[in-house]
What does this fold into?
Amino acid sequence: MRIEEDLKLDFKDVLIRPKRSTLRSRSDVDLSREYKFLHSKLKWNGIPIIASNMDHTGTFAMAKILAEHQLLTAVNKFATTKQWQDIAANYPSLQNYVFVTAGSSDADFKNLCAVLELVDYSMICLDIANGYSQHFVDALKRVRATFPDKIIMAGNVVTGEMTEELLLSGADIVKVGIGPGSVCVTRKKTGVGYPQLSAIIECADAAHGLHGHVCADGGCTVPGDVVKAFAAGADFVMLGGMFAGHDECAGEIFVENGKSYKRFYGMSSTEAMNKYVGGMADYRSSEGRSVNVPYRGAVEDMVLDVLGGLRSACTYVGAKKLKELSKCTTFVRVTQQLNEIYMHQETGDIR
Ligand code: 5GP
It folds into this structure.
C-alpha cells in the first residue's frame, strides 16, 4: 500500500484569478474550436460541449437543439437502428454533432456496426464505467480497426498513464472522470475516484503530449464549473445533471406536492439495470442513484447560460477565444466559493 501526499483538487477548491484584459465585450469572444484528431483524418468545428450519453440527456430531441448552437450530443446506446435511420434521413445537419454510443460487449459492437452501416455519422463514444480494464482496451482496438476514419471518444479514466494507453489504442478523445457525476455513487460504494479538476489537468497534459484530446465528464454543477474544466485543459466538456430535467430529456413530467419534476438516474443505478438488462446481477452493486429533478423547461436557456458564463470568464482573463482560456488561467486555491446568505431565498431557477 502507498499513499500519495500531493493535494488533488476539485472544482470547489479553486477560483480563476481575473487579469487585465483588452476585450471590450463578451460578444467579442469566440467559443468555437476546430480540432484535428490523433487517428481520424476528420476535422471537427463547433462549441465543444457534449450532452452526456445517459438515456435521459443523450436523446435525439437534445441533439437537434444542441446542434443548432453547434454543441454535441452523445446519443444513448439504447437508441434503435430504426431511430437512427429516421434521424439521419430527416436531420442531415446532425451528422457532425452526434456521437453514436456503444459499450464494450460483443452485442454493443454488433449494434454499433449495424447503426454505422445505415447512417454515415462520424463520431463514436465508447463508454464504460471502468476504462482501466484490458477488456475495454481490446474493445477499443477492435472499433478503431473497424472504423479507421471515425472520431472515437473512449473512457472513463482519471490518470495520465491510462489516457496515453487509450490514445495509443485508437482513441482520439479520452473521457475523464471516475466518481464525480451528479447521480454517481461509485466513490461511496467503492472508495475509488479522483478529484475532477486534477484529473482533467493531469489527463489533458498526458493527452496533449501525444496530440490527443480529452473530454471532462462529470461533476459540473454550475456554468462556472464548465469554465474551470476548460480552463484546466479540457478540450470537450460533457454534461449530465446540468442538462437534466429539461423538455428535451427523456421521461414524462410529473407533479408531486404541486411541483413538477422529471426522473433522472445513473446508468449503473438499479433503476437503469431494471429497465435495460432485467435487473441488477447479484455480484454487482448499484453505482448510481435515482433522483427527481425539478422540471426546468427548454434546455436552450441552460445552454445560453453556460455559453454566457464561458464568454464572461474569457473577458475576465483576457482570452479572445475559448482556445486561449487555459493559457490565460491562473487558478487560486480557496476555502470558500460563494456567499450563501440569501441562497435559500432564491426564487428563480436554481442555477
Ligand atoms: P454529471 O454531469 O451529471 O455530474 O455527470 C455525468 C456523468 O456521470 C456521465 O456522463 C457518466 O460518465 C457518469 N455517470 C452516469 N451514470 C452513472 C452511474 O450510474 N454511475 C457512475 N459511477 N457514473 C455515472
The chain has a mean pLDDT of 95.
